[in-house]
Design brief:
- This protein is α+β, with helices and mostly antiparallel strands.
- Helices cover 32% and strands 28% of the residues.
- The chain contains five helices and ten strands; from the N terminus they run βββαβββαβαβαββα.
- The strands form four sheets. Strands 4-6-2-7 form a four-stranded antiparallel sheet, covered by helices on one side. A two-stranded parallel sheet has the order 1-8. A two-stranded antiparallel ribbon has the order 3-5.
- A hairpin with a 7-residue loop joins strand 9 and strand 10.
- The longest helix has 17 residues, at 190-206.
Length: 207
């Protein structure tokens, strides 16, 4: 982050792959014999987004989708990859149950689906001890003429969540400054490499 913020709280992350099987057919000669997996997955995507609950802090995103072999063939298979972000385990469990129900329901007779969980990171909780740790970090930063850091919550997951689950305070995202991560516009500020390396060295020595 370029605004001298660090992370004290993160959402949990889970990703699922949903695969749909249909019945292939020629789109011109005998389309009535086909059962389009693409048509089915499009209907399921609408159901998936309906699981989102922003007030709860839970969002869903179908970030990858694919299927079929040719424009003149009724698609025999299709898939999508689903990303879930959640603030609480209850939100995750609700969406996971919803995805399974979506997989088990067929909009188009003759299609079937299989849901597979690919990964899951727990949410990184904001601990009171993490707030205290940030104050200690800032005392050292100011002592060495570095700018003060502000803590914030973000939606990106991290394995640092396993530390907070064990009650260990965490100040996360102390690395290089930059913006637009996971996009083609992503960049890092070269000068911040030296700044953050020096700050981390001071923290390791004095904390």
């Amino acid at each position: 982050f370029i605004d001298n913020t660090v992370v004290l709280e993160r959402k949990g992350v889970a990703q699922f792959r949903l695969e749909v099987s249909g019945v292939g057919a020629h789109a011109g000669n005998n389309p009535e014999d086909g059962r389009s997996a693409i048509h089915e997955i499009v209907k399921k995507v609408e159901d998936i987004y309906a699981l989102e609950d922003k007030a709860e802090g839970t969002t869903v995103n179908v970030g990858v989708i694919g299927g079929g072999t040719a424009a003149n063939a009724v698609a025999e298979s299709a898939f999508c990859v689903i990303d879930i972000r959640f603030k609480c385990e209850a939100g995750y469990e609700r969406v996971a149950r919803g995805l399974q129900a979506i997989a088990e329901k067929s909009h188009i007779d003759g299609t079937r689906a299989m849901l597979t969980r690919r990964c899951k990171f727990s949410a990184m909780e904001r601990l009171p001890e993490s707030e205290a740790l940030l104050e200690r970090v800032n005392a050292i930063a100011v002592k060495h003429d570095f700018p003060r850091l502000r803590g914030k919550a973000v939606g990106g997951g991290s394995d640092s969540a396993y530390l907070t689950r064990a009650g260990v305070p965490v100040v996360c995202a102390l690395g290089v400054k930059g913006e637009f991560n996971h996009t083609v516009r992503e960049y890092a500020l070269e000068a911040s490499l030296t700044e953050r390396a020096k700050l981390l060295a001071a923290l390791l020595e004095e904390l």
